[in-house]
């Protein structure tokens, strides 16, 4: 097998705040093949966005990658000179954000914004840029794309705006797109449409996709593999079907039980009790212990990392493997 | 858009009407110009004749109506002191002030905005700190003092630039302008710099604050994620995002500089309207004061109108005002 497109090893991104060090990403490892779709799920504050921003080298201060490596297409992105990282962003790794209302510049036409994205990486005339932008808008399902280039973001609906943002991300033909909850701000019906289109686009262009979501259901319909994140760590990962059918980590089970469509039959729908721990004061043991129904004295020690058959979990007392 | 323009024009006309009345009453209610214009030993006949000639015996409202009628015809009356039409008098001085004010605000903006944007982009760098120190100075050092220092340094000690006066002008459209010749510019430079210092400070503050805020937005983060260079982001995204407050302050500063450039005009013997109005206040030359204040109001209203209309150009979200929703 050839080397993976992306290989993240022991990534640590910490926020050095006045109150202390918030270990937002703490020892995250995973890899991603070309064209693969990876779901990254977890509750709010688990470090999903910070993981995504670490990949494109845009962690806001006081955040900083303090350890680990991000090998992308054979190069370590950690410590890459800023100008090289910039040249990579948008061209080989693109990112789509949650709120299209906030990401597009309200006072520039989308044609201007797409042209800037193209011209950041190559000499492209305004006319050629407009042609390529229109073609990409058409591909993401925007009708009358050529005439809409002169429109401003507020002249599009929420769903259309996010399509514009997706078109911008696809513009330079990146090998990897990091999509940070791009449908969360949208209506449910539009969410489903965009999800399906995004999957089709990624497949047909061979682009690898990291889809960040707090919603396991969304990820299940889209991803090949899933990473479950808790308190800055990957607590479980594996092929999406297997993980959903037979989660091994109690946290994954908890996430599943809080989904209407996936709760075990006859069981009441329930949220995971308690709240996510403060990242400032993590104990050496399992961070999920205060909320875990299976926790015992063992869990005061760091949980073992169990890896087998493409699945991985960090737990002293994992759930049974599927029969 | 057209409805919006018409609505704004009507508003502007109303404001002008109110202003003219206020100004007229305000100025005519203070002092007695006769005491200033006519020597106390003049005979009763001469006094009465002067009062009649100047229309000072009529009731105030009649004086105002007559004044308003003349105003609409562009006739602001005759200066008590100079004995010439007020409009001619002011117009002979206005270009000098206009030129000075515009130069000052332009310098303040063209220099201040890039400095402020940089200071907002790299707020912790030594350069940004130096820029902020300049802006603190600009706010806190009195204009007259800076003016004197400028004269002492560049005119007296170095002898590079003239110390005052307007120097040669070039006639365009029947009006004399300084900025069209190098020598004229040399006369304009020091007073314009003097006046621009405060505006510079203001523009630095304004664009620094705007840039700091803009840099934290998702818009800038998304542009970065697309691989745009920081320079491009500042030029194309940030500058556009902060343009509305900058244009607003540009207009306000232009208006207030036109109206109140008097300190600088006095220090540099710049023959503008600032000096004229001070002279007319001390001599209670009421037609000049009234016309001046009405003109100032007119300038403010016009500038506000232009600023309002330019909002629509700068922010597409405002453009559909009045258009079918
Ligand atoms: N600018 C910041 N300053 C300090 N700490 C931060 C900052 N940004 C993120 N963090 C820390 O990183 C943690 C993870 O944040 P992140 O945005 O990655 O969460 P998330 O999983 O994307 O959550 P959500 O679902 O709400 O988007 C936060 O809980 C916070 O402690
Ligand atoms: S290690 Fe213990 S506390 Fe943590 S998830 Fe497993 S059982 Fe629960
Ligand atoms: Mg997030």
UniProtKB/TrEMBL annotation, chain A:
Residues 6-256 form the ABC transporter domain. CDD domains: ABC_NikE_OppD_transporters. The keyword Manganese does not apply. Keywords: ATP-binding, Cell membrane, Membrane, Nucleotide-binding, Transport. GO terms for cellular component: plasma membrane. The keyword Nucleotide-binding applies. The lineage of its organism: Bacteria, Pseudomonadati, Pseudomonadota, Alphaproteobacteria, Acetobacterales. It comes from the Bacteria. It is found in: Cell inner membrane. Belongs to the ABC transporter superfamily. One of its GO terms (biological process) is transmembrane transport. NCBIfam families: oligo_HPY. This is ABC transporter ATP-binding protein. GO terms for molecular function: ATP binding; ATP hydrolysis activity. It holds the Pfam family ABC_tran. Its main location: membrane. It is a peripheral membrane protein.
UniProtKB/TrEMBL annotation, chain B:
Keywords: Cell membrane, Membrane, Transmembrane, Transmembrane helix, Transport. It is a multi-pass membrane protein. It comes from the Bacteria. One of its GO terms (cellular component) is plasma membrane. PROSITE patterns: ABC_TM1. Residues 94-307 form the ABC transmembrane type-1 domain. Pfam families: BPD_transp_1, BPD_transp_1_N. The chain crosses the membrane at residues 12-31, 100-121, 133-155, 175-198, 238-263, 289-314. Its main location: membrane. It is found in: Cell membrane. One of its GO terms (biological process) is transmembrane transport. InterPro entries: BPD_transp_1_N (IPR045621), MetI-like (IPR000515), MetI-like_sf (IPR035906). Belongs to the binding-protein-dependent transport system permease family. This is ABC transporter permease.
